[in-house]
Amino acid sequence: MGKIRTIRWLALLLLLFLGVGILGYWAYPRVVAAHYDIIIYGGGFAGCASARSAASLAPDKKVLLIVPDPVPALGGLGTIGGQNFADIRYWQERLVTRGSFAFWFDQSGQFYNTGEMAEILRRDLARFPNLEILYQHDLKGVLTWKKAVRVLSLAPIKRDGDGTVAWQKGWRAVWGKVFIDASDEGRLVRLAGNQVTVGRQDWPAEHLEAFNEGRPASKAQDPAGSVPSSWARQQAATLMFKVKGVKTPVQPGQYGDFYFALDFKGSWGLVGGQGIWQNDGTVRNFNESFRAKGFAIKPINAAQNGAGSAEWWVNMLLVFDVDGRASEKDRGSSRFPVLGEGQKTVDQAWQEARALLERPEFLQALRRFTVAVDGEEYGFGEADLVRDQENKPVVGQVMYLRETVHGLCRGEAGGVFVDDGAAGKAEKYFALTTEEAQKAGAGSGFGAEQKIVWGADRDNFTDRIGLGYYMMDINAYRPEDLQHKGQYVWPVTGYLRPDWQAAGGQPVNPVYLPYAMLLPSDSVNLLVPGYATSCTSLAWSEIRVLPNLTVLGDAAGTAAARAVLFGENPADFGPAQWQWMQEQLRKNGACLDK
Prior knowledge:
Layout lengths: L1 H17 L3 H6 L4 E4 L2 E4 L3 H13 L5 E5 L32 H9 L5 H12 L5 E5 L1 E9 L2 E12 L5 E3 L4 E4 L2 E4 L5 H5 L4 E3 L38 E2 L2 E4 L8 E3 L2 E5 L5 E5 L1 H6 L1 H10 L4 E10 L6 E9 L26 H12 L2 H7 L3 E4 L2 E4 L4 E2 L19 E3 L26 H5 L25 E5 L14 E2 L2 E2 L4 H4 L1 H5 L8 E4 L11 E2 L9 H7 L2 H21 L8 H13 L7
Parallel strand pairs: 1-8, 2-3, 2-9, 3-4, 9-26
Antiparallel strand pairs: 5-6, 6-7, 6-8, 10-21, 11-17, 12-17, 12-20, 13-14, 14-15, 15-16, 16-17, 18-19, 22-25, 23-24
Helix pairs in contact: 3-15, 15-16
């Protein structure tokens, strides 16, 4: 069947390529076929950084950026998704996630207007005449030949009235030399036949449920193989939503267990409310009532939608058992994954979460997140939902997926993950390991001494493409993860992974990101700065924030430019190519040294 399908693909694409027959034009008037040197899939920060680097370094080459989102805007989660709270962490009083991210950050601030950020990205990429952007198109099929991606089949998408993102009429085929998967679901990586693990599939068995994690306790419990080994839980997703009526103090600072901050653009952000989340009866009742339906609220992260705005984006609504690979437009096709029991598609999660915002219990719980200081009450006591023209809550156009798949590194065990559940055994399958991220060294390439203090990430130094830095912040995988012995606990990283806590807890230094992270298991001309980059699930808990993904995007675009300029495959890069990349990344403002 696979060979027959390939032959059909080749035959159809050959007809398109040769432009055979007026009949073909009249039969398929919306079919478009085009050639590019570099094709990037994913319009988020990683994809925009890839496009920016590739287009600038290879000005005579054609670059295509495919944006698989339901609205025509750049930035993905960081703009249309509503996640306008930039997750930065300073190291030795400096920002180490530089390059493209620093360029955009300097214009936007930490708590930014999402529309303005989308415009910053659009204006930045519009500088490159060799870059074409294709909005509202998604990937339907991938043609590979001799382990190289050759052609992508694309079709338009649009969100229907019920909230489902659906295929529209028409399709196009695009040929490329080098491809980049900067998406949140690893769709190009998977459809090209590369090996991935799902969610926390690589965790040691003792920290997982015995069942429904890809490791049935016994064949007797799973006689029909109904829970495939390719399924494991992914971190809870979130639907961002907008509110108005948030009251802030005159001065930033800590008030109770709320921390109010002002960025250098004059925009507010706040985090906190842990005590309310743990102890307030209204909040606890909400979580107890809706946990069976796969929903919970957590302590608040929120950011003003730019300085002076009356509107805020809020990150607090957790949606459990969302499979980030699964969308309704793929149902019934080979692209649709086998879901575990009770799992939701991304469309179902978006629809159900938006409907939940309408429940009076939700707004009652939200308004409990206040703090009283000197007779004044700050926070969400008078907050209300912002609504659109149809009186629906304004929410992110894409779900905030925290985790989907993780790519296996190139050449390890033939790209086949051996899921034996033993602690530490999974590390060898990934280019960035948990230990490297957690125990990165404190080396410094700056100052008079030029001293390097090596850590667990020492082996990544030679092919380093940037620095990654944040907390290792996993979210809950099940509603039950939010409680321990009847008490609500936050954060959950140390509780869910006591072995990580025993090994030292949060990293104190940035980690060298190796070039090998960008390489999938099999495809020789594909680079992966998106969610499917090669790192363990626990290392991903640090890498997953947008500044780190932008660093990977810069590197992927730089590698793609090198490949098309010199006629090379990214999979074959060695010291000479790494050094060239490092030189170009430094020119783009990247930070490669500690």
